[in-house]
């Protein structure tokens, strides 16, 4: 093996190497997001794209008309983003599905031209076109002014596309010599994401000798898995030279090492991960079974499972296994294989809603049916079988043979190929679109025939002018051309169906009934002007579609699924009799589900028991008993009727709306019907995911899959489907560029090691106890004022306890409403309990009286922490991560509530108690004095910790934020504690002298801060926003009122401390706020010095308070500067990169 090391130039200084490394790190830090977002100002169409359908589409571009990306195109009419596949088929399909009237008018005013041009005319047009190109500076045929954004998935692929301008990305990467970043419209196996390429500068001086061989092995293994490559690719000299060019010296793993060690190890790891994920699923699942044939003519069956995680409106898919399936297997062998597979993955048959099958093996189908499973034919496989039946008829097979021969003759002849390209340009046809088909994928054959029909005159003319070609092999008669045209017209609805499936996020079985009904009742309906051949095609296709879905159980399943799809409630896909029958079945299932959930049988028994006992009738019962009967719980049947009525009263969802998201949004209104819908929403319409449906992707995937060696098929297909997910993007980048590893704290990636320690649990329990103790001290103090007949002090103390507590209940209620909308989790019992507590008046009074709102949230945080700890002990990583993230989210909420409680209740309470002390107890130290000092000291510490914990929690809960270190938390505590002490003492000494003026000054400060917050109230608007309100619409009046009220609450906090309500730079805000506060403190201190009475001036605490009004404030500012200058997480991260 020739493996010549390639040495990169290394004549630059080490500082330059560090700079290059830093530059690369900065690039990756920006590129490691899951999606790219481009903001465009125009939609443009280049001059070379002259199809009439481009009138309603365009590429995103800048103000100057520079195209940002050709990965996606945007519809001018509805702003829908469509993947650009280098042809106009999906453009026309989109217009046909969404803008039929505009498409009709467009084609009416621009009919397709099929005239035969003379040679003179061709030459004249070619000269005219060249002249136009030379004279005009116009770059685009269409330009539309439109603002918007386009999102593109981020992954890695080395590509080039000179038509794509990404200057805006390079501008964002502020480095001296940026990497060139390009995007290409291409498809990956199993993914439709478009990828980012990193092109190294030629003078890159990174020390390649530091590259770890294990990283290269991992990268090559991922390359083989993600692209379904053969392991023997590493033995190719071209591949070895490529790797040596990129990284030298390095060790390339051998084919045997990949097959026997690396790939099996990755497989075992991911198999365990998938098994853990599936073990946590409690809802119903759907299975798919797809049969396919390898290059060695061996048969295989791939089994996948589809499921929906609780609270997530997304249908997930995992490939379980690929089984070798010899043709001589009997039903018993298939039965044993199925039982073993389900046992291995711990899947219960009763939890499987249906099995989508893409096979005609009778033995396999019988084995599945005998186990009580409902079998739904895969729609893609059904369309393939139907189209293949048409292609295999003798007449069509002969025509296909001639079409392939004609295309082969033209593309292999340079002059003919050039003539074809010129004619396509002159007739404004898509260039290089007439390609030879791949028979196992029927859409490729259809595309070949469609392009042949469009170029009938061109192809005929070119073939006639070619010498040495047997015309009998390539020439099609007029009758044969007519058959091709009929076949293209008849199969066009099938292609539209394929396009519809590929546009879905995940096509569900609820689509099948409407699609089949539309195909059979409309598109395949025989018309008077149809030819005999077209009639024959339509009849055979219609019969095949009907026969494959004729089974009663399949029909019932599809009708139920379609009825529960909010998009198709009003479609006439079935007779009224069938709809009524299905409605009855749905009601029975729903009633049974409600009974199981609520346990009606127990409640009936309890209700009937008192009737057997004779009890004394009270006077009220004797007089009014006949009028006021005891109302028992609503029967399950009535609940079912109410939910069904509610469901049908909801407006029909748009056809492009995801039903899973619709049900997630409406589940609060129809909770039980939503659970029933989930049972049917876990079954896909076809075995292949949407990204594998387009013809070119199908061909690429099938050719690579069929070439896999039998001993690696199961492992590679499993890893390819389950391993190439979004969670690998960051790790993949670091694996490919190990020298660029970014140093961050482990706590910055909570999903990596989401462990809950005894210390975390101790802190949560301590927080609960400290809060209860703080409340108990305040209430005890109020009671002591009352017993001492100090009514005014008792009144003010009580107001400062109950009013902030009432506000906290409102804020907590708002948080709970947001949680109800976004977190439909499995903890339904806990959520219902919390919801009931916050909505019942009696419970709210108790919460307000004893300030228990934060305790309620602390309880949930503690519960999630204990669950995470429990699942960690059980090695259930998936559940552990889930509860750990819930704990972080709840901890963030309780931190905000604690801040609100501290500065709305504790801070005013401290000012009140200090003012009382300063006015009446100049030198007396008694039990009441000690009690008050204890209350003040504990509250001051609580406020400092509340602010530090708040900043820690919001960063810990957000994955895009780096976390605060221990030293940073300590500095945060010192900063906020000192500032709070200074502010409260300054206001207290002023209130002890001029209480009325102090209140006026605080009100003025509060109003100013509130206005400041309202001016920049985006964060508060988001908090107060109605989740049902469209995000792009302006806030409603009600939402604005709520935001103003909440701004007023935050304004009270700003009397004491600064609380940032919107993400962004805070430097100028801090400078402005703390200058004002420092000036206020100085004014209060000066007034205290010059206006205090002689008795106060002679007291022991006079000078101490002067010092504590100023010095702690300066200490707090110093702590803040040290924190932002040295220990702020983003700065720490930047320093790690610079190193």
From TrEMBL:
Broad class of the protein's primary localization: membrane
Keywords: Cell membrane, DNA-binding, Membrane, Metal-binding, Nucleus, Transmembrane, Transmembrane helix, Zinc, Zinc-finger
Region (Disordered): 1-21
SUPFAM superfamilies named among the record's database cross-references: beta-beta-alpha zinc fingers, Ribonuclease H-like
Coiled-coil intervals, chain numbering: none
Domain of life according to the entry: Eukaryota
Cross-referenced Pfam families: Dimer_Tnp_hAT, XK-related, zf-BED
Single GO MF annotation: protein dimerization activity
Domain BED-type per the UniProt entry, residue ranges: 48-106
Biological processes annotated in GO: apoptotic process involved in development; engulfment of apoptotic cell; phosphatidylserine exposure on apoptotic cell surface
Cell location: Cell membrane; Membrane; Nucleus
Protein name, as recorded: XK-related protein
